Amino acid sequence: MAPGTENLSAVLYGISDLRLEQREVKKPGDHDVLLRMGQVGICGSDVSYLTKGRIGDFIVKDPMVLGHEAAGTVVECGSKVTNLKCGDRVAIEPGVPCRRCDFCKGGRYNLCKKVFFCATPPDDGNLCQYYLHDADFCFKLPDHVTLEEGAFLEPLSVGVHAARRAGVTLGSRVLICGAGPIGLVSMMAARSMGATSICITDISESRLQFAKSQGADAVVLVKPGSDDKLLADAVEEQMGGVRPDITIECSGAESSIRLAILATESGGVVVLVGLGPPEVKVPMVDAAVREVDIRGIFRYANCYPLALNLIASGRVDVKPLITHRFSLTEAREAFETARTGAGGAVKVMINCEI
Amino acid sequence: MADCDNLSAVLHRALDLRLEQRPIPEPGPGEVLLRVLCVGICGSDVHYWNHGRTARFVVESPLVLGHETAAQVVRCGPDVSHLQPGTVVALEPGVPCRRCSLCRGGRYNLCPRMRFHATPPVDGTLTRYFVHPADFCFRLPDHMSAEDGALLEPLAVAVHSCRRARVGPQSRVLVTGAGPIGQVSVLVAKAMGATHICITDINEGRLQFARKLGADSAVCVAGMGVEEAAAAVVAAGGPPTAALECSGADSSLVTAIHAADAGCVIATVGRGSLEPLLPVPLLTAKEVEICGIFRYANCYPAALALLASGAVNARQLISHRFTLEEVEEAFQAAKSGVAIKVMIKVGEKS
């Protein structure tokens, strides 16, 4: 790659301060590939960094490139790269762990304390034109899978990881709390992993209708101030008179976590994917006397291959979830749409091939 | 039978415990008639005695207390083959329905129609004679005492929680709360190979006892905030990979979440507030799991193996001994907080 090549990048300088500027294009190391970025989706966490400058203890202190749900095309390979060649279109798994700690060696590399993760401070993301990444965390897309679908592997992997950790299998009855993008991909993952009954809850009627169109067997509208026990009964009724044995909580809201636990069958599992306030009231006695397990979910590990298979085989179709498209030069508008959810936005996709 | 004495300790209402005669029952198919040898007292027995109820169960009619039992078979009902008169057994106190999906799935402790000794309205075992299904009676090897047999019950709780928390070699275990359940959890965690066991409590005496039982480190958390306590735990033995919450204090659960290594499993044995405030984002960022513990299922054989082999010496937990006639004093001792395990002798082997 010639020096001085354009690399327009979307850089977060501070709260509501997103700038498009040129950044250096680096040369790939032995195990890296240089990618011409293709499509990058926007996630709620990107929006949080833009609007609040932080998520928990991750604080934006220095300018940071946004974007982590991404796919691109290989333009240069490091000397030791064998799994990819120039021209390959790839999905990019954004978290590269240390490979040496016990978590990495044990396969739970999402818990590596030294992980590099795109667009989590202080690590730069890939909402730009050229980007360097470890080749083994890039997954070649078959010809019939688009770059947009490749970018969608990231949130789909969150759904796959949640469904796996929850133990979804053939015959599972799954309740999903929250019908945003994460609830939707969790539903798709659960269905493809064998769930035979899926109910989804949300506070928005239109989101629920969309969820139904994407395959939910049942939906339950949550009205503010509803009694959670009555809601749990409504879920049971909608699921044919049996309670779910697995619940995937995708909203992070206290009342939704409460519903998740109350609604789940004894001996079942609730996985918490959604991020909410720093302290949440949790109905622990009910969970404990009925042995309803509560498991935290953090990103994903070893999910990209399965997520890719789900899309490539046609078992999962994420295209209806891509509702808004912008180009890299329109990054600010793209984030505004993602932030407000205007026009029924589900997934906003940014095209970086400008 | 030589005598018709079936003296029983019956709770009529809170703090109204009476010794009364009750009819001696007949064993039906699959059941055995047992002569009770000894019964340990648990915090839940004390709670019923003190308050006449727990959050979920109310004593509405007279209830025989006691559920940690060792007994001797007197007579077998029809269809009992693995026990004979004279066999000394430990009793698993809960008999599930055997027909619901939870029972079929092996998680019979969660059976909605569970009949559990001394949980209203099911009578317990502080009585000379009673009847129990034979398959919930576990033969004690000759070298084990009746007191050992009665200790299988709390031991089973510890086996269940250690299993659910995946305690094993390489585990760094945090036990919060050094009451009887915390103490027995230390014994079982050690026997299951835990590399390091750190115990916390607000009472120095209890902590010292836990160290004697095998805890590798002890932290007195009296007056500490949760983050300070968590830091002390981590400094003592590293961030826990498994935690057994045995105190029933919300702060202990929160401390465990703060101290936890990524991937830690926290088993909650103690019961705290109905809806404690938990640091959920911390829980999710570390993929911590919280597994509630409700009694046990399929744990008696393992508990028996641990005691029979000598891997666990539970007898050192017994701090007070009384006879059935002294049951009122026994409960007073249990309530006082100075006792670890109170054992009541009800009968003799024949």
Automatic annotation (TrEMBL), chain A:
Cofactor(s) annotated in UniProt: Zn(2+)
Stretches assigned to the Enoyl reductase (ER) domain: 14-350
CDD domains per record: sorbitol_DH
Matches recorded under Pfam families: ADH_N, ADH_zinc_N
Keywords, comma-separated and alphabetical: Metal-binding, NAD, Oxidoreductase, Zinc
GO BP, sorted A to Z: sorbitol catabolic process
GO MF term (any one): zinc ion binding
Cross-referenced PANTHER family: SORBITOL DEHYDROGENASE
Recorded family membership: Belongs to the zinc-containing alcohol dehydrogenase family.
Protein name according to UniProt: Sorbitol dehydrogenase
Gene encoding the protein: LOC108671651
Automatic annotation (TrEMBL), chain B:
Cofactor: Zn(2+)
SUPFAM superfamilies membership: GroES-like, NAD(P)-binding Rossmann-fold domains
InterPro entries, per database record: ADH-like_C, ADH-like_N, ER, GroES-like_sf, NAD(P)-bd_dom_sf, SDH-like
Record keywords, A-Z: Metal-binding, Oxidoreductase, Zinc
Alphabetical GO biological process terms: sorbitol catabolic process
Keyword Nucleus carried by entry: no
Domain Enoyl reductase (ER): 14-344
Pfam families: ADH_N, ADH_zinc_N
UniProt superkingdom: Eukaryota
Keyword Zinc tagged: yes
GO MF entries: L-iditol 2-dehydrogenase (NAD+) activity; metal ion binding
Transmembrane spans: none
Family of the protein in this entry: Belongs to the zinc-containing alcohol dehydrogenase family.
Protein's recorded name: Sorbitol dehydrogenase
